[in-house]
Write a structure and sequence with these properties.
Layout (H helix, E strand, L loop, with lengths): L2 E5 L2 E3 L5 E8 L8 E6 L5 E7 L6 E3 L7 E6 L4 E6 L8 E8 L9 E4 L3 E5 L2
Parallel strand pairs: 2-11
Antiparallel strand pairs: 1-3, 3-8, 4-5, 4-9, 5-6, 7-8, 9-10, 9-11
Length: 122
């Protein structure tokens, strides 16, 4: 059974940082690309970032480039998202998800975690 469990969300003031984690189990973690997707209140899903199976290649949405950093620790079956300089429009539920392949090109996210809430407000 594929399981993805996000943690690290919470309430934070603008300009501060959070680090999200996603612990994976039930599959061979280092055989798949993985990524983060978010959904702001009342809005649709927005892809945030992806990382290939090895961690050698990453991709970011323009909205977070230079602000967020994705990484993975395959020895710990864990995905991370370092979020710096947070803004109110970063408020969303953040989901981690597994890709359907090792690489990033044409990735489809097949398995999703339950999400973790990030609220950026003064």
């Amino acid at each position: 059974e594929v399981q993805l469990v996000e943690s690290g969300g919470g309430l934070v003031q603008p300009g501060r940082s959070l680090r999200l984690s996603c612990v994976a189990s039930g599959f061979t973690f280092d055989e798949y690309a993985v990524g983060w997707i978010r959904q702001a209140p009342g809005k649709g899903l927005e892809w945030v970032s992806s990382i290939d199976w090895s961690g050698d290649r990453t991709a970011y949405a323009d909205s977070v480039k230079g602000q967020f950093t994705i990484s993975r620790d395959n020895a710990k079956n864990t995905l991370y998202l370092q979020m710096n300089s947070l803004k109110p429009d970063d408020t969303a539920v953040y989901y981690c998800a597994t890709g359907n392949q090792p690489g990033l090109s044409g990735i489809i996210f097949a398995n999703w975690g339950q999400g973790t809430q990030v609220t950026v407000s003064s």
